[in-house]
Amino acid sequence: MRRVLVGILFVIALAASPSLPARADPADVALVMAIDVSLSVNEGEYQLQREGIARAFESPALAAAVAGGEHHAIEVLVLEWSDPEIQITTVDWTRVSDAASAQAFAAQVRATKRSSQGLTAIGSALLAARAAFRRLPEPAARHVIDVSGDGMANVGPQPSQIRDALVAEGVTINGLTMLNDEPWVDQYYDMNVVGGPGAFLMQIADYQSFAAAMQQKLLSEIVALPLRRRAAPT
Fold it and tell me: In this predicted model, what pLDDT tens digit does every residue of 126-135 receive, in sequence order?
């Protein structure tokens, strides 16, 4: 009788104890897409950025690049940045593993609305990206920040200092610059923003070329294909 009672109590204890969470499937890359929404970006240019990201994720080439990775999946987050205190996640961490999930992510991007219009705090955007990495839902082989913008930082912490700290943590920071407002902004990004393993910078004349450049940039980031500092095709 005693053995039966002990057995019953053991079963009850197992049922009452919280189950351990299942191990999350790893991703090939965790990508923060940091999008400039400062005052220098007008509404039309903002729409071109958002649509360019959505179109890139709808591309069959992107789904094929994801499928070709070791883990056949990536984690992606969209972060809009302007003032130091305004860094808004408009699409939170989303696992993309095939064409269907890529298209669903594109739909989420299109459903977002502009979060702010402020100054240009690139350093604060990098800090917000670091914080996002710390709440990743699953491990990732590489951590990449994809910063797009058309101007130099004019407020907040020095981007170069934050960049150096992130690079020391193994993070890669790539850049996509639009030269329509400040033609020298690519040099600024090269010196103060871009860094880390395989980092690269792309520049385009204006936002009309954003979609093609973003697709090329994403493909390079997903497959870890190094690119030299270069102009993107229009």
Answer: 999 999 999 9
DSSP 136: -
The tokens describing 57, both together, are 């994720």
Q: Where are the beta strands (DSSP E) in the chain?
A: 27-36, 74-81, 87-96, 140-149, 172-178, 201-204, 230-231
Give the Å distances, CA to CA, from 39 to 75, 113, 154: 29, 15, 12
Q: Residue 121, Cα to own-chain centre: how many angstroms? A: 17
What confidence tens digit (pLDDT) does each residue in 27-42 have?
999 999 999 999 988 8
Dist CA 5 CA 209 (whole Å)? 73
List the structure tokens of 163.
């960049």
| pTM for the structure as a whole | 0.85
Give me the mean pLDDT over the 65-92 stretch. Answer: 95
**Distances, alpha carbon 122 to alpha carbons 3, 156, 194, 216, in Å:** 67, 8, 11, 23
